[in-house]
């Protein structure tokens, strides 16, 4: 009989309040990176493979609701309750630009070509900032039906996806005209929306449902009812055979994409799970919780018979490979000391 395998996550401390958003960069020549948003007002950058802390972006005066990295992981962006979206140098931690809004910024996202930043929030307005002309006024795409909860780009930056906190559905906007070209109907507000790495699927969460939509023809491909209200879900990017979901019951569940069968239930968080995201290589996924921690879970939980992870086909990112991010990253001595104490 096969041994029952138990998942033991890497636990990443450092945030002092709930972690509400996570974002992995694509794989870069220096590996891949993880940025986290928290109500403690300080987004954090980590080595995406090991979870090792690289630095903290300091400057927001309110809870940070959203964060992202550009395609090359050279710049970071964050949206905050202090009515601003900020652009950061991901190598030094310096604040590059701050874009003032009239209300809370709940969502932000870099375009695939890294030339634009999309924001949305309580103002019910989608804005596009030109990174080549950051001092220029942003383009306002249109007013949305409600407060914006999630945004992302698709179709090689020709389409924008957005959801609202107070109404169901996902709206797809034509970037050129600013018009809604399609609405993906859901009964409950969509709390999470992710475009798969290969561009085939849109993964959404609404209420206790995880749905997968055809990203090109917009038809509903799969819909699965979850054991609890879920806040976030992510599709494994390499093969697309499984997905993870997390929500109010504090557990991270892994499901078969084709059948909806529950494959694993990982316990460890001490509060509701607000965000889950697969790494770009699909070999692990991260979860962020009300308990203020980030946990990184291996896709295939280990047994004593498993081979050493350093030779199990994983692309390990050495400290030397991320040294250029760590060197010069400006952090306060107080926060660095706190981080070391937590480890």
Concise overview:
Keywords: mRNA processing, mRNA splicing, Repeat, WD repeat. By secondary structure, the chain is mostly beta strands.
Features:
WD40_repeat_dom_sf; disordered C terminus; 4-stranded antiparallel sheet; Serine-threonine kinase receptor-associated protein; mainly beta; 343 residues
Commentary on this structure:
With 343 residues, the protein is mainly beta. The protein contains two helices and 27 strands. It has helices spanning 323-326, 333-342; strands at residues 10-12, 19-24, 33-38, 44-47, 53-56, 64-69, 75-80, 84-89, 95-100, 105-110, 116-121, 125-130, 139-143, 148-154, 159-164, 168-174, 180-195, 201-206, 209-214, 220-225, 230-235, 242-247, 252-256, 262-266, 273-278, 284-289, 294-298. It is globular, with a radius of gyration of 19 Å. Residues 299-343 are annotated as: Disordered. One of its GO terms (cellular component) is SMN complex. It comes from Anisodus acutangulus.
List the helices and strands and how they pair.
Elements: E1 10-12, E2 19-24, E3 33-38, E4 44-47, E5 53-56, E6 64-69, E7 75-80, E8 84-89, E9 95-100, E10 105-110, E11 116-121, E12 125-130, E13 139-143, E14 148-154, E15 159-164, E16 168-174, E17 180-195, E18 201-206, E19 209-214, E20 220-225, E21 230-235, E22 242-247, E23 252-256, E24 262-266, E25 273-278, E26 284-289, E27 294-298, H1 323-326, H2 333-342
Antiparallel strand pairs: 1-27, 2-3, 3-4, 4-5, 6-7, 7-8, 8-9, 10-11, 11-12, 12-13, 14-15, 15-16, 16-17, 17-18, 18-19, 19-20, 21-22, 22-23, 23-24, 25-26, 26-27
């Amino acid at each position: 009989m096969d041994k029952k395998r138990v998942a033991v996550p890497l636990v990443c401390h450092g945030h002092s309040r709930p972690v509400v958003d996570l974002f992995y960069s694509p794989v870069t020549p220096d590996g891949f990176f993880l940025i986290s948003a928290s109500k403690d007002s300080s987004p954090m950058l980590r080595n995406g493979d090991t979870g090792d802390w690289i630095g903290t972006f300091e400057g927001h005066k309110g809870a940070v609701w959203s964060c992202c990295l550009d395609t090359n992981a050279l710049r970071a962006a964050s949206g905050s309750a202090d009515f601003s979206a900020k652009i950061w140098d991901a190598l030094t931690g310096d604040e590059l630009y701050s874009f003032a809004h009239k209300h809370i910024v709940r969502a932000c996202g870099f375009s695939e070509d890294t030339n634009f930043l999309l924001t949305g929030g309580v103002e019910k307005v989608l804005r596009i900032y030109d990174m080549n002309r950051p001092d220029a006024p942003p383009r306002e795409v249109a007013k949305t039906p409600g407060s914006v909860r999630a945004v992302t780009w698709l179709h090689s930056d020709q389409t924008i996806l957005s959801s609202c906190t107070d109404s169901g559905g996902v709206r797809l906007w034509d970037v050129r005209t600013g018009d809604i070209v399609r609405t993906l109907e859901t009964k409950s507000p969509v709390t999470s929306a992710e475009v798969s790495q290969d561009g085939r699927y849109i993964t959404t969460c609404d209420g206790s449902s995880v749905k997968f939509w055809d990203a090109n023809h917009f038809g509903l491909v799969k819909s699965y009812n979850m054991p609890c209200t879920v806040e976030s879900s992510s599709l494994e990017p390499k093969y697309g055979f499984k997905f993870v979901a997390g929500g109010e019951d504090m557990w991270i569940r892994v499901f078969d994409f084709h059948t909806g069968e529950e494959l694993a239930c990982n316990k460890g968080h001490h509060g509701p799970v607000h965000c889950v995201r697969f790494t770009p290589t699909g070999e692990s996924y991260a979860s962020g919780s009300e308990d203020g921690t980030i946990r990184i879970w291996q896709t295939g939980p280990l047994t004593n018979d498993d081979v050493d992870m350093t030779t199990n086909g994983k692309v390990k990112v050495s400290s030397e490979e991320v040294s250029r991010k760590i060197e010069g990253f400006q952090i306060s001595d107080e926060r660095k000391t706190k981080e070391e104490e937590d480890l």
